[in-house]
Each structure stands twice: as C-alpha cells, then as structure tokens.
Amino acid sequence: MSVDEDLDKLIETLPSFFNSHIEKHTLKDKIIEIVMDLGRRPEVRFSHGPEYLSQKFISWQDLDYTTKRIGKFSTENRAGIERTLHRISCIRNRQFLITGLTCRVGRAIFGTISVIRDLLESGQSILILGKPGVGKTTIIREIARVLSDEMGKRVIIVDTSNEIAGDSDIPHPGIGRARRMQVAQTNCQHQVMIEAVENHMPQVIIIDEIATELEALAARTIAEKGVQLVGTTHGNCLENVIKNPPLTDLIGGIQYVTLSDEEAKRRKTQKSILERKAYPAFQIVIEINEQNSWTIHENVQESVDLLLRGTVSYNQLRTFIQNEKTYIHYKSLGVNSLFNNSNLVNTQNLNSQLSWSQINNSLNFSKASVSHKKIVIYSYSLSYNLLREIILKLNLNVLLTKEVKKASLIIGLKKHLQQNQKLQHLASKKKIPIYGINRGSIYQITKLFQFLML
C-alpha cells in the first residue's frame, strides 16, 4: 500500500504556535483530525485517542488566520484546500461567527481494495457500510481509480461534499480517470445522480453517503437502467439498513405480509411477518468492521430474506495484513434443503481470474487436512476436465466417476440440478447428497471443495 496525504498543505494553514509541534510529532502520519475550539487548547486526534499540542489557548485571531487560508465554507459549513483531500468543518455561534474548526486529514491510499477486486470484476453493485471515520470514503476513492484506470470503465463520481475528489475544480489524481460531478446543495444529490446517467453514459456511478429516501430511490432507478453502483451509507451491519426506513429500498424494501392460518402454522410464525418487497438495488454488501477486517454479503437478496425469517445466514469474513496474505473465512454455512432428502449448498459468486497460488493463499487451503479423506464425485453440468484439473492442482484425494450409482456425492450447477427430477429421485433413493453452485468458475468450485473437505 502507498499513501498520498499532502499533510504539509494542511499544516501550512494552521497558526505557527502549534504547527511546528505537528511537524516534529513521531505519529504525524497517523493523525486523523486536528481540532481548534475558541478558548481551548489545540488538539490532535489519533485512532488511539486525542492529544493536546500546546499550552496556549485558541483565540479569535487563530481561527481567522486559518479560515483565510482555506476555501470558502459551503451551506453545510464545510470547506477544503485546493488540490488536496483535506476537509475543514466549522462550528458557528448564534451570530454565525466561527468558534471552532475540525480539520480532517484526507488520504488517498492505493492498494486498499485488492481484497475485494474479484467483487468489482463481477460487475455487481456494491454497498459499503461502516460507522463514521472507518474509511469508507477512502475505499470508494480507490475503487473509482481501479475501475477507471485498471478496468477501463466509464466512471462518474457524484461528489456531494467534495471528500472523494477534493475541493478543487480539478479532481484529485487519487480518483484516476474517473470523472467527478459536484453537487451544489446536499438536498439535490438525487437529482445529480439521475443527471449523471442521462447525460454522461457511465458504466459505473459512485456515491458517498446515501442518506435519504429520495437518494435511495434514485439508486434503485439507476440500478434498473443497468448501471453498476458503488455507494456508502452509515451503519454497522446489514440489519441497520433493514431497520432504517428511508434506506430499505437499497436492499429491496420491507413490507408486512399477512399469512393464512395454515401457512403461519406450517412456518411456525405469527400471521403478520416482514418480507422483502423487490429485488435489491445493491447485490453485494460490505461491512467495514475494522480497517483490516470486512464482512461480505455476496447475495444480499438471500441474506435479507434469511434475516427477516430469523434464520442466521453465513457471512464471508475477509481479513488482510499489510504485505502479507489475505484470508477468507466463513462464520457459518447455510445449507438449503431444496430437495426431499438431498442438500444443495448455495455457493455464491466470486468471479475472479486468479492464479492457483492466489486461490490457495486466499482460502488458506490446507492440503494435509484432506489427505485422509476420499470422495467419489459425480459431476452434472460441470466440465469434467476442469474438475480434474482443480483436483490435481489442489492435490485432493478425490475420484471422479461417470456412474451415479458409484458416487458418494453429486455436484453441479444449481439451475440444472433443480430441473433434473430423475437425478433427484435417484440421489434420494441411494441417499447421495447433492451440492450445487451458481456458476462453474474455478473459484466457486474451489470454495465448494473447501467446504466438503475441511
């Protein structure tokens, strides 16, 4: 990872009596915010906590010195510094005079989203959740650069607060070739989102801080036009979006449904239940738990349905350490009984063109743990040669057979397995479990083998 922060340009705007303390600070590159409040000592904030910079108190002159060296404040009381990503927010008194400043350090961090590159390549819309200050804006800035520069897509950023591309009319180079549309007033963000689609023919639209019902509706409209969306909103987890009425359209909307007595008895639920209304505008949700630990909902539609039914779905947890491996784990694995006596594992899409070494590293696959197991697999609607290659590369103790009766399990594409009633009946009779995947990609098949073997 590399970092571009232009911190010196922010320090130059601060009063001289404490900017020298910042210059000499050993944790200078870890600063999150610098706070200046009238009549109080200047304060610098790190991830581990705050620290005072000087014994001198902030005066009116100190505040005036800084405000004259930055851009003009918007109606939302935010300003910036030309050609940087720093954001300065002000606090005003009843006479509309500035009595406090919060100087937030903006950083363009390159390489932060390598852990979810396969999700970007899938072309599906992605919603990023996280509490304020966790780094959502930094992540979508890097996503914009990767999509526009490395994947060659037409990307438009709807930048309401100028946090993604900076406060200048010329966007910060951290967004790559992506184009930026500024929003004059916050309450007009939804209009600019629709304008971006209608006027500029984007393949991807990036929005920071979706917060209102109109913005959620605009996101749904954009998704229905076939444009990939990448957006952020405040919330710790997917349940927060479900419980937030203005934002439920992002995950398909929620409605009350009244069941018949017989159906309620069969489901063992109350007669009035919550159900999803429509298809989600975002197909993937990423929860930023910590800066190096993200929870992935690969199928939002399924996750929302299971949460509304009170059933725990399985979530993918990706953890990464700088200059080391990325690990993919599963908290719990949901198995759907789609057949009478057979189980179908609904393995989600991870369409990634990865090398074998990358696959083994990302899954943290242990060959020793599977050497003592022997499985005979019958493949239905999956390439026999592809399966054989994967088995050889991973050194699995697995045999392939072309006779169903000799198989200890059956694997194949989910949609084809569901249509073959004869195979279902035979598998049920012989008590052979059936496992299905959505697509026959190398990565999905490898994930299925991991589940079967470990």
How would you describe this protein?
- The chain is an alpha/beta fold and 454 residues long.
- It folds into three domains: 2-106, Beta-Lactamase; 110-330, P-loop containing nucleotide triphosphate hydrolases (Rossmann fold, 3-Layer(aba) Sandwich); 335-453, 3-Layer(aba) Sandwich (Rossmann fold), CATH 3.40.50.
- The chain is 30% helix and 25% strand.
- The protein is built from 15 helices and 25 strands.
- The protein has helices at residues 7-11, 16-24, 60-67, 117-121, 136-150, 189-200, 213-224, 238-242, 261-267, 300-308, 356-363, 384-394, 414-419, 421-430, 442-453; strands at 2-4, 33-37, 43-46, 49-52, 78-80, 87-92, 98-104, 108-110, 126-130, 155-159, 179-182, 204-207, 228-234, 254-258, 272-276, 284-290, 293-297, 316-320, 326-330, 335-336, 344-345, 375-380, 398-401, 409-413, 434-437.
- The strands form six sheets. Strands 11-10-12-13-9-16-17-18-19 form a nine-stranded mixed β-sheet, sandwiched between helices.
- The longest helix has 15 residues, at 136-150.
- It is elongated.
- Residues 333-372 have low confidence and may be disordered.
